[in-house]
Amino acid sequence: MIKKTGPKIVVIGGGTGLPVILSELHKRNADITAIVTVADDGGSSGIIRDYVNVVPPGDIRNVMVALSDISPQLKDIFQYRFKSEDKFLAGHAIGNLIIAALSEMRGGIDPAIRELSEMLQVEGHVYPASAEPLVLHAKFTDGSSLAGEAEITAAHKNIKEIWVENNPWSENKKPKAVPEALQAIENADEIILGPGSLFTSILPNLMIEDIGRAVLKTKAEVVYICNIMTQKGETIDFTDAEHVRTLDKHLGRNFIDTVLVNTEVVPESYMDFNRYDEVSKQVVHDFKGLRAQGVRVISDNFLLLRDGGAFHNGKKVVDELMNICSNPIEKHD
Fold this sequence. Notes:
By secondary structure, the protein is α/β, with parallel strands linked by helices. It contains 13 helices and 14 strands. The strands form four sheets. A seven-stranded parallel sheet has the order 3-2-1-7-8-10-12, with helices on both faces. GO terms for molecular function: LPPG:FO 2-phospho-L-lactate transferase activity. One of its GO terms (biological process) is regulation of cell shape.
């Protein structure tokens, strides 16, 4: 692997938004580290974590592919998901099964990722936020609580706060971060949060106490890429300022330095809300609210319309992220 000599960039999150940014960063001269959530309990990842003692592999799989230099044909095989009529294998991605198998063979997720990174020619570093699968908990504004990412999202209630815990059978009482992830945060020139689901992809990482503490202590610029669309069961009616306010509240103080927001209008007639049934409407801007939280706001047309959905244009976003590295804000203790 050729060592990149550019800025050390740490990207924290999960879901489908993260690979969009990572695949574009992969083309630049950046030393990339991805820290990936391990609280996913839905779909193929959820089934595997229930039957094999391994962190949910889906987000890790997608991130590794985004940073891989193998051929498109091999990527397609690794990403292939069995059809629903395939009974026992229904819905499982081949890459998820390989990660689970290697974790069992090598005695943990860390050696499995290291070995698979070599096989996939991954350029960069990929770390699970924790070496153990975590359980996401949420308290809603109506006073009720739920455990499990899938159940929390499906409840379609307003979330007040979230936290993560180890599984009840874990030897550790509270979640601990992978040490290499903490080291990457400490050495970073820039830390990127998102894009991704606020309560289920980004915050679960920050709610691991030592990761949250490391992000608060970092000298690096912390950049939040705000979602383009609100999400049912998570951020219905949230403005961009409310996204940032929620992050700050969970960590106990204002820590976001810069926010990237898309200003291009998403044509409602274009959106396929049946295909993307988790999204609701476009995030409303509140620039006054953002400035009140002391953040630098970078607003532009970051929109990419594709396949009936609204996505971030990876190239435009990464152009700004690299520009931020060249022109960081001055941070004070």
